[in-house]
Amino acid sequence: xxxxxxxxxxxxxxxxxxxxxxxxxxxxxxxxxxxxxxxxxxxxxxxxxxxxxxxxxxxxxxxxxxxxxxxxxxxxxxxxxxxxxxxxxxxxxxxxxxxxxxxxxxxxxxxxxxxxxxxxxxxxxxxxxxxxxxxxxxxxxxxxxxxxxxxxxxxxxxxxxxxxxxxxxxxxxxxxxxxxxxxxxxxxxxxxxxxxxxxxxxxxxxxxxxxxxxxxxxxxxxxxxxxxxxxxxxxxxxxxxxxxxxxxxxxxxxxxxxxxxxxxxxxxxxxxxxxxxxxxxxxxxxxxxxxxxxxxxxxxxxxxxxxxxxxxxxxxxxxxxxxxxxxxxxxxxxxxxxxxxxxxxxxxxxxxxxxxxxxxxxxxx
Length: 365
Known about the structure:
Helices cover 30% and strands 28% of the residues. With 365 residues, the protein is of the alpha+beta class. The chain folds into 3 domains: 5-128, Rossmann fold (3-Layer(aba) Sandwich); 138-155 and 226-352, D-amino Acid Aminotransferase, Chain A, domain 1; 159-223, Dna Ligase, domain 1.
């Protein structure tokens, strides 16, 4: 009997998006083809410790919200390079717990989506689902991302970037003159709408700055773009494909954290978006271009604003988009003919294919 492929599902993490990651992992665990794949659950707590988990006790209800929380202090493990690839080692006794064939990181935000875990997996000689080190790092830093897109002639949201060193010199009047009101303030290296505020008047400015800087040492101040919010999923390595686009219809000021992951009535998802054939094709083609410009692989979701004159503006790209039951990435692929279970399978196979391709490269002379 053919051995199942051992898939390490890596979730949780030190990021402010810890709970979102757990929700995404739960959905993958429920949908993965268990006849083909053996699941190895690796939960990272908020202190960065790795735990080997059992499916039966993986999740408990959150004490503070409807999101799940990581359960317990299970067996602490570490990932190390082995003779046949990467191995998990029990830190209490130093014994290996088995080889991991491929890792599916479901980690959102810093220490998971920014290239850190991807670099660790590369050193451990383990295939990794999604973007590699470069694509992950570029996709996480919205300042660098937007500058690269601008160099490629791709229209993006007008923005200003500030770090902690110039924090005291950030001037509301100068920003208002440059971007007009309202504008958004957000951390440069976080997603899921964490730390984002829409500033409509001066009295909101300082508190929005302080909140954004709580989550990172660099922030963005972005212009408000009046337009439809369109999202498109991309799948593939060298020859990626794009899904049908979808539209977000927020029921509040913007597509907030709660609307994305907690309140199913927080936004209406129009899937597919009501667009003509030409606009649909333009968004799909631009999504693939953005994916390639930012050196992505495996998967990504590209977010756009569509103005009244049909001008398409790129907002951002996410290299590990949400996989919760109300997330756009899998929903768009379902509407495009790829089921959730098949999508997971394709992503794992893409990781294995890329790994085999890289193994053929010379590492000595």
